[in-house]
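Lab manual, section 2.4: Encoding a predicted structure.

Procedure: take the sequence of the chain (181 residues), apply the prediction step described in section 2.3, and record the output as structure tokens. A sample record is shown.
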Amino acid sequence: MSQAAAGAPRKKRRAQHKNAGRRREATSAGQLVADTLSAYGLTEKIRSYRVVAEWDQLVGERIAKRARPEGVVRRVLVVRVASSAWMHELGLLKQQLLAALWRATGEPRLFDDLSFQLAGRTRADKDDPGSPPARRPPPPQPVMPMAAGELERAQILEESAVVEDSELRELIARVRTRHNR
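Recorded output:
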């Protein structure tokens, strides 16, 4: 051993990490979940499910009894309405409804317009005005994705193991397992 090597103080080795030397700012759990949902392309789907699930609160009980959202088609929220009288009434309230829905769903907008359609009527019924109106269909139920199987769960757990925070790691694994993403 040389004298220079023997007398020189040993330097501590710092762990080589991609963020070594940088300070990380604290991020809220809500922001981390939002970022994760966005990374998996689920943000818009969840926001559109929210419109269906919270329809009664968004538009009020009076309107919710007579109109149900069916989904977003080419940036238009399609709403099934119980009668032509209600379709006319909602047409008059369209701008107010749009403003309230946009406020509730936030930016970016999920839809740009509303389309009111008579519930229970098919194109064939419209061609035959003498046909009796069909019964009002039950309100649509949100489609819940299937949970992950054992193989998918194992892969999800392996992928989420890279997250350092144990609470966040468990949350991500639980959400991904439930939604099979």
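Check your result against the sample. The chain has a mean pLDDT of 77.
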